[in-house]
Hints:
The chain is an alpha/beta fold. It folds into 2 domains: 2-161 and 342-355, Rossmann fold, CATH 3.40.50; 165-340, Rossmann fold, CATH 3.40.50.2000. The chain contains 15 helices and 13 strands. It has helices at 2-9, 25-39, 55-58, 78-92, 103-107, 140-149, 190-193, 195-207, 224-233, 248-254, 272-280, 291-295, 310-322, 324-337, 343-355; strands at 13-18, 43-50, 66-72, 96-99, 115-119, 135-137, 155-157, 180-185, 213-218, 240-244, 260-263, 284-287, 303-305. The strands form 2 sheets. A 7-stranded parallel beta sheet has the order 3-2-1-4-5-6-7, sandwiched between helices. Helix 2 (25-39) crosses helix 15 (343-355), helix 8 (195-207) packs across helix 13 (310-322) and helix 11 packs across helix 14 (324-337). The model is unreliable at 1-7 (pLDDT under 50).
Amino acid sequence: MRRYKRTMQEPQHILHLIYQLHLGGMETMLADIANEQSRRGLRVTVVVVNDEIDPLMIRRFAPTVSVITMRRRRGSMPLLMMARLNLLVARLRPDVVHLHQPNFRKLLRVYRNRQVLTVHDINTPLEHVDGACPMAAITDAVRADILRQRPAARVEVLLNGICTDAIAPRPGRLPDPANFRIVQLARLNYEKKGQDILIDALAELRRRGHRDITVDFIGGGVSADPLRQRAERLGVADAVNFVGPMDRDEVYRRLADYDAMVHPSRYEGFGLIIAEAMIAGLPLIVTRHDGPWEVADRGRLCSSIDLGDVAGLADAIEAMMAEYPAALRRAADARDFAARYGIGRTVDKYLDLYRRLR
């Protein structure tokens, strides 16, 4: 018993569990946390259960982080996977098991009192999570959604973190009058991320006479073809560029090339790219009362639109173009504010949570 308590005071081996490694916010945050924990001298292991692994994502882990891939095909052999996972975790003997999806709470029967769960998004089902498991919510919005489902949950807000020093700052230049460059960086899933709303707003701006706006969508996903077809149908395909997936280091270099980031998500727990855009000094337009809106100091540091409001988004883009110096001043304030999202602070708070495990 004494040995266990001492381990919990200063955990030395952190095990992270995740199902997949896509190019997404959850996976990016995991890599950054794992790398920072390893940099501090902790032993860090990441177990990826399924075979959905993007090579760009796997390369984000430092050589000192041990990444174990179980290579299970999604949905196949659940009982065998559960047995293999429990045997693997028992063999690794971690001090802390950091779960990144709630279903692991049901599957993992070993080290029950050393588990902590991060809930990364709104609308995450929690039917398999019992009240004994400490939970971290990445924003107040996610915490409220957890408590809606589990009123007695042990949950606290631990904000996501980013590698602030790696992001190139945008020069304080005015946009090219012939090309106002907008970027939207997210997985192409318009039912969540709202890329269709931005395409519709671009078409509305075209109807208002604006032919000086282009949009780059950075990311891949299931909505790529429907979004291309939508842009063609609305007559704005010439102004929309589907860049595809991009390594995060390249993203950090290229954010400074744009004039604005627009993120009209239908729901979003946090939106790492919002904090990253703030560090880059990029003016923002996001959905009101969403996770990104909260990240931007509840709308103080961005322009906001109502959920799904195409005309409102067109108005917000038009206003930003007309009053761009004011947008740059707000972006400068956002850059200062976003220092709170440094990865070091996030890791400090997780280590404190680990120490309080019982």
